[in-house]
Design brief:
single chain; 287 residues; alpha+beta; seven-stranded mixed beta sheet
């Protein structure tokens, strides 16, 4: 098999994920397919040997394509993320295809699309890529030309706006917290198989430099490796919301020393471990 054929095969393996990202970003099946095709064209022109993590590269690239499309939907410039109002409905002014609308509602969720459509383009981009597909703040920051800390704040603000609507099942914090609490219990009791069952096979755990010095590597991938790390741990972890995400904290002397946040869909797809005091000071914690 030629290198081009191998690249095409790997792209097709990632197509469902890319389509899911694009549908949540754009709210349209047809536009999502166009964005995925545009991503393929960009890949075909890229130097494949320089791409270390193809799934991550593809996810970020399709997100960038969608962000550009969102920004050109309206003539007015994008407002700052902390003051932006609702974006216009992309279906306004055009015919509605009932079959397409039914497919989109089934695959994405109409309630979620309605809520996402209240976010400005950058907010929507950050929320979809981080909270739904576990792309790191560092990777997102390079696309939106912000610092990782600023991107984290954008995600926090967008998350609060999304969670205000209790009809959005995919963003239901109570359901997500139940998954996290089950994970913490399995961790304390050393139930490896249960930990694996609660983790997506492609889960990613990221730890900052201070946390890495305490145990977990900067980035760990795969359910087995992450379950092995957590098995028998978490004795001191107390469930808490970390910047609006279900998670856990480890406190000593009344101060939070470690914060762990989990990104949950049907299972845990991402874990972030923060121990840097400067970063901890920017996070919001709630029981």
């Amino acid at each position: 098999m030629s290198e081009a054929d191998q690249m095409a095969r790997r792209f097709e393996e990632n197509r469902p994920r890319l389509r899911a990202v694009a549908q949540r970003m754009l709210g349209s099946v047809a536009e999502a397919e166009d964005a995925v095709q545009d991503t393929w064209l960009r890949l075909s022109r890229a130097d494949a040997t320089a791409i270390d993590n193809l799934p991550g590269w593809l996810t970020t690239t399709v997100g960038r394509v969608c962000l550009d499309r969102l920004r050109t939907r309206t003539a007015r410039p994008e407002q700052q993320w902390d003051t932006a109002g609702p974006e216009p409905d992309p279906t306004d002014g055009g015919p509605v295809d009932p079959e397409r609308e039914a497919l989109l509602a089934e695959s994405v969720g109409r309630a979620l699309l309605v809520v996402l459509d209240t976010l400005a383009p950058t907010e929507r981009f950050v929320f979809v890529l981080h909270d739904m597909f576990a792309v790191s703040f560092e990777e997102i920051a390079t696309v939106v030309d912000r610092t990782p800390s600023a991107v984290r704040q954008i995600a926090s603000r967008a998350r609060r706006r999304v969670h205000q609507d209790g009809t959005v099942r995919e963003a239901d914090p109570a359901r997500q917290r139940r998954v996290v609490e089950a994970f913490l219990a399995a961790s304390r009791e050393g139930r490896f198989d249960d930990l694996v069952s609660l983790l997506d096979p492609h889960v990613v755990m990221r730890a900052d430099s201070v946390a890495s010095a305490l145990g977990p590597a900067g980035e760990t991938r795969g359910s087995a490796a992450i379950a092995d790390f957590f098995s028998g741990r978490a004795e001191a972890a107390v469930p808490a919301y970390v910047d609006g995400l279900p998670g856990a904290i480890v406190a000593l002397g009344g101060s939070v020393r470690i914060a762990i946040s989990f990104i949950v869909t049907d299972r845990i797809i991402g874990i972030e471990v923060v121990a840097d005091p400067a970063q901890l000071a920017t996070l919001l914690f709630a029981d």
